Protein 1
Amino acid sequence: MFSRLRSDIQCILERDPAARTAWEVLTCYPGLHALVLHRRAHWCWTHGLKWLGRFISHLSRTLTGIEIHPGAQISPCVFIDHGMGVVIGETAEIGPGCTIYHGVTLGGTSLYKGAKRHPTLGSNVIVGAGAKVLGGFTVGDGAKIGSNAVVTKPVPAGATAVGNPARIIAAEADARREEAASKMGFSAYGVTQNDDPLSQAMRGLIDNAGAQEHQIALLWQAIEKLSAMPQHSNCVPDGAARQEHFKADKLNALIGK
């Protein structure tokens, strides 16, 4: 029991830069308290003491603001950071090394008793604040769930899910996007990890379109100067764009740049 507690404290010290001492973690971290109480509740649940397990879970929810059903299976070295508003359902399974932030729901979409209704998180999964993972599917090892994402389908290992409904972004696709984006002169999702990749792509396209219009306007201005010479007097067609009209700043503002 004490070795498990020591490993839980150590994983918090490693992952939370705000944690200063083991004593501070032991006395002031509700995520740790919720996990300790959950182990007692889970033992009662698996040994036929269903009501006692639920009562311990209820006390834990009152004390910590974290609701974990006593039937949930949680591996060692799981870190629930802040934790307020976290809800973990009965058939949820959480692998070792996972990090779960406040406001996360590991919920179900089925009303059938006995069925696998809640998600399974592999090892080292990160679930961002406010994310909702709903259903009896698996989130693969090393996957990341973005803040406020609503995930209703499996997430492959090493992938990232963002948005509502969540879009699955494979790690290989991230690398390709980063390579292509670097040629366009903007930061892709792999660099600015807290941003939406579609917004980043849109910003790159907007900037690229604005740069192209700028070059076209310069070309027409050069041609207009040439047209002033007698031998080139008819080289500029009517309606040629000599000024830039593309409002890149306004479009970037619309997508939150």
Protein 2
Amino acid sequence: MRILFVSLCIVIADQLTKLFVKGFSIPFLDINFSGMNYGESVDIIGSLVKFTYVENPGMAFGLDFGESAKLFLSIFSIIASIALIYYIFKIQDRKLPYKLAIAFILGGAIGNLIDRTFYGVIYGYDSVFYGRVVDFISIDFFDFTLFGHTYERWPIFNIADAFVTIGVFMLIIFHHKSHKVKEPAILETTTNEKIEIINIEKKDSEDLSTE
């Protein structure tokens, strides 16, 4: 399905930006890109928007529920991604905004899933399913408290987090508008059937009068 290419583009964009921030090495091509130092911050739009390199062992936006939840979170992400792919094939009759919302969520989920599943092995700091998600987008915001932690800026996030959030909001907005409206078709069919019955009865009545 073409809508899956949207998810694929999100995954590619997410992973490319993370590799740019974290750095990568391809020895057989003699490529070694150092990326940013951990904790390094670069102003993009003054202090309003910054690129700040951190790694998140937990959920989106820096939410961490402990080391023991890592494996569960990774496996749950795999199951959720498979379920979303299956669901996209089941909603081909829905309107485009609704399908885009699901595609955004799927692309974001897979983007972070790659970090959790493979980054620990690729970068040599942990085993499969125990990787850390690379976050780098930092936006100034009013102070707020979430799960007992006070934030002076919006929690640092990545492109995958952004598309999951956008997808969820789109899902809320377009969910009830996405269903096909079948009532008029049912009404039209019922009306046609009634007209046909009336015509048959009228014809039978005319035949009896003739006799």
Protein 3
Amino acid sequence: MDGDKGLPGLSHPDHILRTIAAELAEKFAGTFSADMVERYVFESYAALARTARVSAMLPALAQKFATDRLTALAQSEGALPHAVPEVLFVCVENAGRSQMAAALLNRRAEGRVHARSAGASPIERVYPRAAEAMAELGVDMADAYPKPLTDDVVRAADVVITMSCPDACPVYAGKRYEDWELDDASEDTIEEARRIRNELDARVDKLLGQLPAMP
């Protein structure tokens, strides 16, 4: 991939992204070609750059985003183990509800389930009140970042939970789809964020009890 090919108008540190791509190509050797891995890294960087507030963090975030997308794709294609149920939470901005739900499910499941989150129109950062409410439970969301919804994570999911955006995800056979109607913890008070957190926790607990163990 040469320079900004396919990413018009975007300035980015090619050498850093190529280094990241080379590292990930080793990680996914035998699963994906080096060219494909590099394309995912550059595309992930471009997608996050549309909303990112601190450009210095972009390469590191792009590495995390590309790694998760490639892992999801490998799982959906059977190239990596799909050992536990995969749940995807999707809301509009991926800054409150979906981030909280994924963190709560991962906390409760203790490795028995893996949760991801994404947004139909992600914004630049997780809502401070949402992060504060989660911190009260001992859940650190300092490294959480809003990310766009991509087809690879939908394909990897066994269960897709949407929140106020039921038409955001493509529908694939064999997956369970639900839409949860509840408020978002945007710039509301901490009391409101706690209420939403508690409602999500109750729903997540119920969902966890419904998920079968993987064979």
Protein 4
Amino acid sequence: MEDIFKKDLSGAMVSPDEPGYDQLIGAIFDTMKLAYELNDGYHTPDEVRDYLSRITGQEIDPSVTLLPPFYVDFGKNIRMGKRCWIQQGCTFFDRGGITIGNDVFIAPKVNLITINHDPDPDNRSATYGRPIVIEDKVWIGIGSTVLPGVRIGYGAIVGANSVVTHDVPPMTVVGGNPARIIKKIEVRKKG
């Protein structure tokens, strides 16, 4: 029998009817308990990073700032770089895997969603994941949603309230629902 956590992360369909599904749901509730504790009252930046390390099962770099509340389903499939800034009210559904590079800014109420349901109505409770990859120096604007399987390229900007359904090329600005390229980012050379 394949480990359900590996199967889930691989992108295969996972059904509530299969062995191990209760362990998956149990792990989600364990993570939700930690997130509830994180969101309950004031915590110092170090305490917040400690909670985030416990949620992800990874040591979070001291340069990372997360401003609660923070909502997460599984947590263990989040990988985060250095000098990231994550604002209040963000939701990370990471069962498909979320990779966040260095120097990434994530505005309030951003949703990173890696899970989708089977389109077959007779099997709708089954889910499958696709990873989200956010490369270095990306800025995701307030209220945006990034859907399963999206890669956001180096230095890109996602405009406020966008729904990102496809990959975003490096050094571009995207916006809208669905998000479309608005312009290339031109960087002036210094000196």
